[in-house]
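hey team, just a heads up i'm posting the complex here instead of the shared drive bc the drive is being weird again. everything in one block, sequence lines first with there labels, then the predicted structure for the whole assembly after. its two chains so it's a bit long, scroll down
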Amino acid sequence: MKLLNVTNRYYIIIAVALMLIGCGFLTYRLLYLFDKEITEHMLYEKQIIDQQLYEEKHLQHLNFKFGDHIEVQPIDKFTSFRVHLRDTEMYDPLEKDVVAFRILSYEQQIDSSGYRIKIRRRLTENNDVMYGVLVAVVLISFNMVLSFYFLNRWFSIKIWAPFYSALKLLKNFDLRKEGKLQFRTSAIEEFNRMNEELRKLTDKVASDYRNLKEFTENMSHETQTPLAIIHSRLDVLMQSENLDEQQQEQIRTTLDAVNRLSKMNKGLTLLAKIDNNQYADEHELNLSEVIEKHLSQLDIFIEGKGIKVVKNLNPKMRVKLNPQLVDILLTNLLSNAIKYNVEGGMLKVSMDNAGFVISNSGDAPSLSSEQIFERFKRGGDKIDSTGLGMAIVKKICDYSSCEISHHYFDHMHLFTVAINPGKVKVN
Amino acid sequence: MKILIVEDEKDLLNAMVDYLHQSGMSCEKASTLEEALERIDLYDYDGIILDIGLPDGSGLKVIEEMKKKNHQTGILIVSAKNSLDDRLAGLNIGADDYIIKPFHMPELVARIKSVFRRRSFQGKKELVMNELRVIPDEMMFFVNDKQVPLTKTEHDLLMFLISNSNKVLTKESIAEHLWGDHADMADSFDFIYSHIKNLRKKIIDHGGRDYVKSVYGVGYKFHSE
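-- predicted structure starts here --
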């Protein structure tokens, strides 16, 4: 959930809660005030009536002056000045309904004759008030929430802009590309602090990466010559006249080790070169032709192991990739599929518009599908492998924006390479 | 056979000289471009083994000079791994072949001999050893003047063995010669064994001698006597 939606959600919840409390309070207050106002008004009317009675001494015009809500009746005997207030319900001919009224009644004495005076006032309906308040409050709250929402959006776009720009920079951050991240300076201190820390972090990561890369490069480059010297010296030594079998065998094992070291060296150099963008040029290739070429080169090993090859190739598919990398990728995948195949097993190569699958019969893997692509992870007891083949495959796929995955299913190893659709052409 | 080896790494240069010497070639050394240019100006060689990356310039200069002299020296480029551009440039201006560092010495010998053969045996491009005769370009093989059909692998194997006769060849160097990058395939040594067996059988069946001996735990040796 977006930060904005989270805050908006809280805003709305709080607004609704406040609105409900406000409604209740407002209704209560209004009812109280209306009530008080009516009573006060009635008492005021009483005062006017009393004054008139006092001045005019008769009640003939009272009805006319105050309307029909005032009732004056002569009484036989005046008892007290006490004022009575009571609420009642009566039929209202205008509303044609029973409505609530408040009646103020008292007795008055004018020239020794007594009168009972009743003032009647219609009471406001509680429901009406509540309804009115609710409508008003809901309208106000709705407007507030709405303006909050839009204001918030506007603020968040404006205020969070440096954050999103930093996020975008980080997303596009690529260790392989040179250059430091240039964060936008913002007026907000927190963002500037965050950017500063991010800058330090990415600079550190980049420099560590560079050092590591340099180390690998130097290591593999600088060991080449000494390895070549050891190798050639051993070749010379091997031809010496008076070697016994044991000595010859010792030279051979040393040669073996040097060979392995050279191959590892070659693999590491290749990995470093891919990282260094040295295989950037891409050409259009007919993938099925390349696969056929590699299969024919491996023919002798396929036959030797009695492997059955099943091909399902699409000769119309063309891919735009680096030819050298494609060669290395296919060599590694295909020779792997033969190396780890079983006697009389199967090797399947199938293509579709999304990529290709190379599958082979084989024993259940001792490594997980993820581990297979890690450096120096070897499956089984094939010590003569460098442990780099699959790491190279993975690196090539990553570099060429292809995706490789491994599955083991029904005694078959499946290596699926999904080629970036932008690099595939079928016609 | 007189060879000039141009290589800036002195230890490697000496090792190469020693090995080629063992193989019966006479070698001269140059470890800088200047030295190399001086040598080819003064002497003629049957072959030049040339490292492109020299401290005082590109080895390609040597090929250009040789071109100007217009003589029949075979040139084998020794290039560092993956420096494809140098290799192509070298082949374009007149080098005959290339070999990638690091290499097995028998491979170097086989390559330089093959370059030499192509350059020198004008018209008569065949190789004779006692009762054996090979025409490499046409992939033809004769024992006692009777043609023996060989597969491509067997032919490659035979040429490699003959080029390195009387030398102990490790299985690795044979595998790498025959299958290059695929040499480390599982069972490739078993394949070598069966190819050697077939080749031996074909030679003996046609009245040839048993030239190929296995060297216990190491590989094979082709005895020319």
